[in-house]
Amino acid sequence: MWSSHRFAGLWLTVVSFCEAIFFPIPPDVMLIPMSMSKPHLATRYAIYTTLASVLGGMIGYGIGFYAFEWVQQIIINWGYQTQFDKTMIWFEQWGILVVFLAGFSPIPYKIFTICAGVMQMFFFPFVLTATVSRFLRFYLVAKLSAWGGEKYAQKIRKSIEIIGWGVVFLGIIGYFLYQFFK
Question: Which residue ranges does UniProt annotate as crossing the membrane (predicted)?
């Protein structure tokens, strides 16, 4: 089983880093089986995934900040233009809250990292918020996978998406409540 391979942690880190910049497959596809096969290492895997994802997010931010015109054609060619446009609107409306929600949402994380750079969001709050939200997501995935094992693997994959959209929904409600009572 590949999830037990001696370089599995390294590959998880590489995939997590690349996914935050350009890679189309989320690290969950590796994190889940690795956490199931070695439950005692689930937290460590979540930390690896988080750190690599945040580092990749920093690169994505830099691309958006310094080289967006170069990347714009790639966004169009990969079919992310609609998601990118929505994300830009969200950034304009909600600012840093979008980065937190991005850590949980099923929308590709790379879109958010590049948009944060395009919007020239303050870098330190971006990194801090990304670290917290990504860790919470990956820790939840890793621990649920370790706890549920193979028997619950498919349910966990579906639940993470539901939880992700639930967090986005709660964030939107929170924003509107904040605006209403402001």
Answer: 7-25, 45-68, 89-109, 121-141, 162-181
- pTM of the predicted structure, to 2 decimals: 0.76
Q: Which two tokens stand for residue 134?
A: 């990504």
Q: Which residues of the chain have pLDDT under 70?
A: 1-5, 106, 150-172, 174-180, 182
* pLDDT value at residue 159: 65
Nearest to 131 by CA among 53, 19, 23: 53
Closest CA to 52 of 117, 125, 138, 126: 138
Structure token pair of residue 84: 């990118």
d(C-alpha 9, C-alpha 77), whole Å: 31
Burial class (CB in 10 A: 0-12, 13-18, 19+), 10: exposed
- CA contacts within 13 A on the Cβ side of 172: 9
What confidence score (pLDDT) does residue 102 get? 82
CB 46 within 8 A of CB 136: no
The three-state (H, E, C) secondary structure of 114-173, written as one string: HHHHHCCCCHHHHHHHHHHHHHHHHHHHHHHHHHHCHHHHHHHHHHHHHHHHHHHHHHHH
pLDDT for position 80: 80
